[in-house]
Amino acid sequence: MKFTVFGKERIEKLLLIHILGTLEALKNKKITINESETNIFTPYTFFTLEKKGVNEKIIDLIHEGCELEDVEFLCPDKLDKVIEELKQRTLILLDKYEEDNKQIWVQIDDVK
């Protein structure tokens, strides 16, 4: 499946929504850290977004999401707190984007 998103601010806002949903799913044990690492929290993702000029704070969130497995292994009692802190930072960033309901943001191609 291929998603096409039009506009840098829309891409950033959609990334934040995706990060927030991933963190909420992790918090509620609906996905594993492994799944989050194949979904959004990957070095490939943050390196690619960095090259594209995406907001550095979003890249930082993704980078820190890549470290959740380390937190789980080294300090499992702190995992929920770290996830919550990442969620709060994501919400703060998301708040900086204005409502955009003028047209459809995403085009979906190649659904099989």
Provide an overview of this structure.
A two-stranded antiparallel sheet has the order 1-2. It has helices at 8-27, 33-39, 43-51, 56-65, 68-74, 79-94, and strands at residues 2-5, 106-109. The chain is built from six helices and two strands; from the N terminus they run E-H-H-H-H-H-H-E. It has 112 residues and is mainly alpha-helical. The mean pLDDT is 90. The chain is globular, with a radius of gyration of 15 Å.
Helix/strand order: EHHHHHHE
* SS-based class: mainly alpha
Radius of gyration: 15 Å
* Major sheet size, sense and barrel closure: 2 strands, antiparallel
In which range does the helix fraction lie?
Answer: 55-70%
Low-confidence stretches: none
Mean pLDDT: 90
Give the overall silhouette. Answer: globular
| Distance from first to last alpha carbon | 7 Å
Report the portion of residues in β strands: 5-15%
Count helical runs: 6
Query: Within the largest sheet, what's the order of strands?
Result: 1-2
Number of strands: 2
